[in-house]
């Protein structure tokens, strides 16, 4: 089997650029990263699909080819194209909605996520400090109120029911 180095380098470059763009917080760059990764996967499937050959139809030949081409790679690429376009349409809708709400397509930190992170840091300490989890023999630590099993009150159930 002959391995062609140029297509593999191209696939690696596309995948690397796509993953780099996926790490950005800008939705337009995220979309471009998804498209680059999708194209890299399509080229990879095409490359590993084998050499060209006769059409996979009985009685059809093509320019002196002796083997029949594998139709599975082509079917998988068509499916991957449809999936990539569906994901691209979804990300475009997200980017449009974000632009309409904030006139910017950068994804900012969510207020609720920030609040949960601050609550977790208050319960367990700052996230960047090393934590010593070795238990002290004979000493029982008090449990934080946020980790109690029984809630003080239930918001969903009215009193007196």
From TrEMBL:
Keywords annotated in UniProt: Cell membrane, Membrane, Transmembrane, Transmembrane helix
Region (Disordered): 105-161
Membrane topology: Multi-pass membrane protein
Cellular component per GO, a single term: plasma membrane
InterPro entries per UniProt: CPA3_antiporter_subunitC, NUOK/Mnh_C1-like
Keyword Transport: no
Annotated signal sequence range: none
Transmembrane feature ranges: 6-23, 30-52, 72-96
Localisation per UniProt entry: Cell membrane
Recorded superkingdom: Bacteria
Compositionally skewed regions (Acidic residues) per UniProt: 149-161
Pfam families noted in UniProt: Oxidored_q2
Keyword Transmembrane attributed: yes
Family the UniProt entry places it in: Belongs to the CPA3 antiporters (TC 2.A.63) subunit C family.
Protein name in the entry: Na(+)/H(+) antiporter subunit C
């Amino acid at each position: 089997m002959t391995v062609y180095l140029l297509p593999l380098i191209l696939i690696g470059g596309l995948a690397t650029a796509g993953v780099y763009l996926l790490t950005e917080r800008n939705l337009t760059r995220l979309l471009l990263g998804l498209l680059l990764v999708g194209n890299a996967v399509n080229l990879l499937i095409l490359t590993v699909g084998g050499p060209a050959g006769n059409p996979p139809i009985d009685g059809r030949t093509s320019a002196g080819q002796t083997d029949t081409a594998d139709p599975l790679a082509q079917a998988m690429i068509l499916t991957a194209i449809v999936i990539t376009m569906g994901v691209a349409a979804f990300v475009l809708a997200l980017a449009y909605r974000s632009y309409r709400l904030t006139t910017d397509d950068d994804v900012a930190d969510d207020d609720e996520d920030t609040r949960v992170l601050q609550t977790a840091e208050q319960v367990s300490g700052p996230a960047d400090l090393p934590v010593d989890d070795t238990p002290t023999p004979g000493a029982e630590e008090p449990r934080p109120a946020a980790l109690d099993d029984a809630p003080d009150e239930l918001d969903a159930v009215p009193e007196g029911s």
